[in-house]
């Protein structure tokens, strides 16, 4: 098991937690590593049947539990949302008696079932594929760009088996389970939309164009996109709003949560990446590294993009407190002044821009017209969490 930075966060507190994330990001493995005294896996058909028909059974079992039972792990809790009422009962009536560890792959299913999300009683965390720093010496950029960093898939030593696992994940989980999550009636339309979302991942979101290409109505398309976001399969990077709305593009960019899943959905060759896609895949990789930190590890930070109607753009704008970082990603080994137009435009719009950074694949740092040109490894080493593995 790869050491997860979130493990340090969970071990440093005795608060009950809900950990949300897509399938196979390692939620169950992480929470099981905290050595719970009682575990219920609601993905098991037998356990599910026992509790979906009689959720009060959990209350009876906890009241009968011995004093040595203190930590309770409910895996895939969204399958029986009524159990959250029992959790609240014990947190309110018996504070300090139990610590609850809850995992779920769908916040939407919890909301749709009008589940009690225990506001103020538990800490909610999101879990994602592995960060480069969690992989440490096992990190390989080429593998991360082609196969992504889902733990079980990344750890598979055989390239062909990794590729087969990715295709199975994309077809079985995304096309079937997310379909069911969305209560999809138009299966063909949803499948076409999923392919279109994969093909346009990282680009400016144009819902109207998606409707036309997928053959779906606007509200249906918007709802399906919400499902993909609620299940954390896609994440949104909004447009930075600090510039004049008259001159800036205000639409967000949407990214798939994992490069390997993106490649599998698009039926790309998974033994190596296509040369003309190296740039977009590196940009996706950096987007994931930034996004995965902004909630659990860097809560004061928010991620945006910047683009003007005249064509100046910056891949990412990181807002940390009052400071702004402009971040451009280049898949080459050289950076020239002609590549700095977007960063110059961003700096002219706000005096809060404290760092202008180009991330590239060269080996040594440079300073070019006040812009920091950083090798990918140097940039990643400066992000929160990179020095926190224990």
The gist of it:
This protein is 40% helix and 18% strand. The strands form 3 sheets. Strands 8-9-10-11-13-12 form a 6-stranded mixed β-sheet, with helices on both faces.
Task: Characterise this structure.
The protein folds into two domains: 5-126, Rossmann fold (3-Layer(aba) Sandwich); 136-381, no CATH class. The protein has helices at residues 5-11, 27-32, 45-52, 56-63, 83-93, 107-112, 132-135, 141-147, 151-155, 159-181, 187-199, 207-214, 218-230, 259-265, 278-291, 341-349, 376-381; strands at residues 17-20, 38-41, 71-75, 99-104, 123-126, 234-237, 253-256, 301-307, 313-320, 323-329, 353-360, 366-368, 371-375. With 390 residues, it is an alpha/beta fold. The strands form three sheets. It has a six-stranded mixed β-sheet with strand order 8-9-10-11-13-12, sandwiched between helices. Helix 11 crosses helix 12 (207-214) and helix 12 (207-214) packs across helix 13 (218-230). Helix 16 (341-349) links the parallel strand 10 and strand 11 (353-360). It has 17 helices and 13 strands.
Number of separate helices = 17
Neighbour order of strands in the largest sheet: 8-9-10-11-13-12
User: How much helical structure, as a percent, in the residues?
Assistant: 25-40%
Number of self-contained structural domains: 2
Approximately what portion of the residues adopt beta-strand conformation? Answer: 15-25%
Structural class: alpha/beta
Global morphology: globular
C-alpha Rg (nearest Å): 22 Å
Number of strands: 13
Give the topology string: H per helix, E per strand: HEHEHHEHEHEHHHHHHHEEHHEEEHEEEH
Average of the residue pLDDT scores? 89
Largest sheet: 6 strands, mixed
| First-to-last CA distance | 13 Å
Question: Low-confidence runs (pLDDT<50, min 5 residues)?
Answer: none
